[in-house]
Amino acid sequence: MGQSKHRKKASLPPLRSDLRPKEVPLEVLHGHLERAREALGDEGYTDLRMAVDTLAFVNQEAERKGTSVLRLRHILFGPKTESTAAICREVMSAENPSATKAADRPKEKREKVPGHGRNATAAYPGAKRVLVAMEGADSGEPCPECPKGKVYPQKEPASLVRIRGVAPFMATIYELERRRCNLCGEVFTAEAPAGVGREKYDESVAAMLALLRYGAGLPMNRIEKLQAGFGIPLPVSTQWEIILKAAGLLAPAHAELIRQAAQGEVLYNDDTVMRILGKAPQAKEGRKAVYTSAILSRLGSHRIALFITGHNHAGENLGAVLQQRAEGLSAPIPPPTHALAGIYGQMCDALAANTVGEAGELNTILAHCLAHARRRFVEVETRFPEEVQHLLEELKVVYQNDARTKREQMDLSARLAFHQQESAPIMRNLERWLREQIEEGKVEPNSGLGQAITYMRKHWGPLTLFLREPGAPLDNNACEAVVKRAIMHRKNSLFYRTATGARAGDTFMSLIHSAELNGVEPFEYLIELLKHSEEVERDPGRWLPWTYPAPPGDTR
User: At what angle do helices 37-65 and 69-77 cross, to 10 degrees?
Assistant: First the structure.
């Protein structure tokens, strides 16, 4: 007989008292491993030691932040979203059972988004356009359908987009015909077509390699395999030679980009860990870690992204960049609020490494990231749902106000006045609420919520700079979006092989992302820089993403 389709769920026996979890000090576990080292071998010992240390770290985090599964999941996998609706869904649904998220509604009842993700022909500025003439109905001729009408050309032609796949690098072999004199033996070779030089790789190869390697995070060995599949080999060694040569030609433009970034109104900075297999440059005494710092400079309507890899922290790299700031230049946060030279507007999180340079504290007008302070409350939402919801709802209104200033394109003075009128009362009430939670004993200071409140109160001044200074941002999200390019490179390539490779990567990432931030196609921009490398060296200020000579058809 066959087995029954529905099985009865077996009940588990009660857990024996000697198998229940118990606390074992980490030192005791390490002692057990040392005694078993000979039996385990070096490899087995190392694996078990790492497993024990990982378990101890997770246990330590659970004890420090409370036994929040959400917190542990964030540590191990990272949060999926931090929107107020997603975080406070249970509390909001309890207060208003009829309120449901759009994603929870049946698919057929959702509102359809116009466009459905299709791109219009205007979204293909790099496409080749071919005008197809119409036959059989010239302008002014009688209409083929009706006897009295006449046909005339339409203002806009109909469009048909045709996309085909090609290799990133295409090769053309010019077979130059040769002839030889049968008497003297002289060999004559046909001239190459106009515009075809003797160089095997033109400027577009270096530009495309830079985009694939440092723009899309594609390692060179994958590029080599991809090209081999198209029958156009491009070995890793050849790729590196091309990249290294191009990085040298682009060095003047990169240096000018750094100089221009130092003149910015507000500078954002952050960093992420990086790895260099060879010896990293300028190793500090006792510091082995390597970082890639991202610096985002707001210079009028332009944006500049810089990447710097080495042992220095973000604050130290920012201090080095600001050494190139013009003397007597007023504060990045615009006058007349500040007229003292040498004061710079800076946005970062509250880590000391972001605000300390080579000579101590950076002389900056400091703004701290409101999103970082908000995230500390998000991490303890499961234990303090009502308190967290209150804070998130208040900050939500502040962010909606800031979004309105951008939507209505307010100038800096109007933006400041709007925040002082609409956002300042909310922040005052929030500051009073935070103080009451601690001073009136409503929240234990050492709890997860208490630590989040203490952090926010400690940095309240820099967190609310947008209420006092025109142009001060609310958070550091713009710089975190920039640093993701370095993170993508690290995830795909794992490391830089040498310090020279790290410098080349910093050069290309800075130029590519700065071009993107200013609405310039980085591929065409790099080609123009490489084609006119001598002119770039003579006058790099004319070859920034927003000043370089525009190609035909560009309306910049």
Answer: 120
